[in-house]
Design goal:
The protein is of the alpha+beta class. It has helices spanning 47-50, 84-100, 108-122, 129-142, 186-193, 200-218, 224-238; strands at residues 6-16, 20-27, 31-37, 57-62, 67-75, 164-168, 172-175, 183-185. α2 (84-100) packs antiparallel against α3, α2 (84-100) packs antiparallel against α7 (224-238) and α4 (129-142) packs across α6 (200-218).
């Protein structure tokens, strides 16, 4: 792999040996990959404070195997100021990327979507839901999970905002009178198509849909970021 500068973010990092770090990155040109940052934990290394989530980076690395060697890293900008709910939301987005997208595969548009999401979260306060739902739908699109939210898969007719539709995995939505977790109102589906998550009802429906669709990608292991957020909320309420 040639050593050229490219933009990237740290998704996760962990200690490696006595003085190094094993770092999971999301980069513009190579997608998700793992790099070894030699000596990054030593006192004289600037990498320990630099290789943090949500800091825009310029990176260079080398190697042909699954584990690359980080050769250089510089801050491209100040760390994005995520706090409280927005911070936990950022960790959630990072965990999604770490567990869902294929390694060593370029997702240039998703990289831009990720940067847009983080920037929006910085300004969202506690109103993070619309930005998270929007990113989840863009992530599904990057994975090739294309669903037509504007037409009934059974009849081919346009979705009626006042009717209800059952979701059929890997097929789409079909008009139905059944009432279960797979049922969605047509109005919500049309909002999905427009990435319009302004209403509470649409956001709730979107969360139900994305959790349903992302579950096969995530497997049985629960999301650590979600557990951390719930634990933090319980702690805050009991304080």
């Amino acid at each position: 792999m040639s050593e050229t500068w490219q933009r990237g973010f740290v998704l996760h990092r962990s200690p490696y040996n006595e003085s190094s770090l094993l770092v999971s990155l999301f980069t513009e040109c190579h997608g998700r990959l793992s790099v070894l940052a030699k000596g990054a934990r030593s006192k004289r290394s600037h990498l320990k404070s630099l290789l943090q989530p949500f800091t825009p980076l310029l990176l260079r690395f080398s190697g042909k195997g699954d584990l690359k060697l980080l050769t250089k890293a510089e801050a491209a900008a100040l760390a994005l100021p995520l706090e409280n709910t927005a911070l936990f939301s950022g960790f959630y987005v990072n965990e999604l990327l770490s567990r869902v997208i294929e390694p060593n595969t370029a997702y240039p548009q998703l990289f831009e979507d990720y940067l847009t999401c983080l920037t929006a979260l910085c300004q969202a306060g506690d109103q993070v839901e619309p930005h998270l739902r929007c990113f989840e739908f863009k992530l599904l699109n990057a994975l090739g999970y294309g669903v037509d939210f504007t037409h009934c898969v059974g009849s081919g007719k346009p979705i009626d905002p006042d009717m209800f539709y059952q979701y059929q995995p890997e097929k789409g939505f079909i008009a139905s009178l059944l009432d279960n977790q797979m049922r969605f109102k047509g109005e919500a589906l049309l909002h999905f198509a427009q990435l319009n998550f302004d209403s509470v009802e649409t956001r709730q429906a979107a969360k139900r849909f994305t959790r349903m669709v992302l579950k096969p990608y995530l497997g049985a292991q629960p999301l650590k970021s979600r557990e951390l957020f719930l634990a933090q909320n319980l702690h805050a309420k009991s304080s």
